[in-house]
Amino acid sequence: MGNNKSDMPPRRTMDVINAGMEKRKKSEKRFQFLGQASILLAIGFLAMLLISISSKGYGAFQQTYIKLDVLVNADQIDSEKLNKGNYSALIKASIRSLFPDVDGRREKRQLYGLVSQSAAFKLKEMVIDEPDLIGQSVAIWVLADDEVDMFFKGHIDRNVEEDARRIKNTQIEWIDQLVAQKRMEKRFNTTFFSAGDSRNPESAGIWGAVVGSFYTLLVTLLLSFPIGVASAVYLEEFAPKNKLTDFIEVNINNLAAVPSIIFGLLGLAIFISFFGLPRSAPFVGGLVLTLMTLPTIIISSRAALKSVPPSIKQAALGVGASPMQAVFYHVLPLAMPGILTGTILGMAQALGESAPLLMIGMVAFIVDIPAGVFDPSTVLPVQIFLWADSPERAFLERTSGAIMVLLGFLVLMNALAVILRKKFERRW
């Protein structure tokens, strides 16, 4: 039978096999190429994002300062009520002394605009701390206005027509004179890391948001970790396998995929509207983030418990340990590295959340640094959201700077999770 496949010459059979092998090898090479290209593309987009944020935000870590020689005139300050002094008038008099030829109401307003409004507050703090300064001339470095800061950093082109920029030609001339007199320079922006929010970009800082984030995450950790681990231990080690526990497990998995803003609506309805807890407080924010983080911690904790070999628990039971002793003295300690890793990743996710906190009022304008979990506060992601909505160019710089700080915290938390996993992980 000439059509029988068994009658095919051996050489032709090997050719078919080799052709198939070549085809599979080419297919594998294409797949590897696509995988490598995908990784390189992802790295490229990530690099573009980081470069874009860094190029816009590095300037937030520097601030322009102006040196003034202020005569602390006793006529403007009541020694009995230092808080009531007219410190703004002292700052204005100091600026006028540098440019005595400036005349006219409009030019004086432009001259005063070189210095931030916070200069008067800084002078007041100095006088309150050292009342002996009254009657003396004090050299003080004060913040420049945000537009002056942008010009000094090169973000505003002096060659652009005057009507197309917010800083005027006369102000540029005064800035050049201050630079020539070495009264203007860039310094590390300590205000950015030590102050709360402000209407003036040059006076705005992230410290209030950082403290608010700390209190919020502290409440979240204190509530979510013990509740999440206890729930995971019960469901994995003690709960009977029936329809009720299956229903609970399905809902926990579903809650992990629920949009975060839903938890914000839940917190608004329960914690604020029903229980009457204060809005914009880290305690309420921690409660909301606890609801959001619990599914992640429970799932990761159960996975860590499952990774412990059953023989360890069986050996403990075999030598007379009770089921609870076997779990808490043998299984749980071995699963703790995985549990901690999942908890840190869940807390990192909570640190970057803003949507649920917007729903409970943590979007408020907060100037003071919170002193406790019940004080009005905001968090770093919400602070970034507020600054991004501001029209001033200097707030764009601070928005990118705050994003860099937030990314730094997230990288540290993820690195800590990796280090803990590598250090304590045991392979069976």
Total helical segments: 16
Average pLDDT for all residues: 88
CATH architecture annotation name of the largest domain = Orthogonal Bundle
Strand order of the largest sheet: 2-1-3
Instruction: Summarize the helix and strand pattern as letters.
Output: HEHHHEHHEHHHHHHHHHH
Q: Estimate what percentage of residues fall within beta strands.
A: 5-15%
Tally of extended strands?
Answer: 3
| Helix residue percentage | 55-70%
Q: Let me know the largest β-sheet.
A: 3 strands, antiparallel
Structure characteristics:
428 residues, mainly alpha, MetI-like fold, 2 domains, 3-stranded antiparallel beta sheet, 16 helices, extended
Description:
The protein is 64% helix and 5% strand. With 428 residues, it is mainly alpha-helical. It has two domains: 66-188, no CATH class; 207-424, MetI-like (MetI-like fold, Orthogonal Bundle).
Helices and strands in order, then pairings?
Elements: H1 10-57, E1 62-71, H2 87-98, H3 105-112, H4 118-129, E2 137-143, H5 146-152, H6 169-180, E3 184-188, H7 190-194, H8 207-238, H9 243-255, H10 260-274, H11 282-307, H12 310-318, H13 323-351, H14 355-359, H15 380-388, H16 393-424
Antiparallel strand pairs: 1-2, 1-3
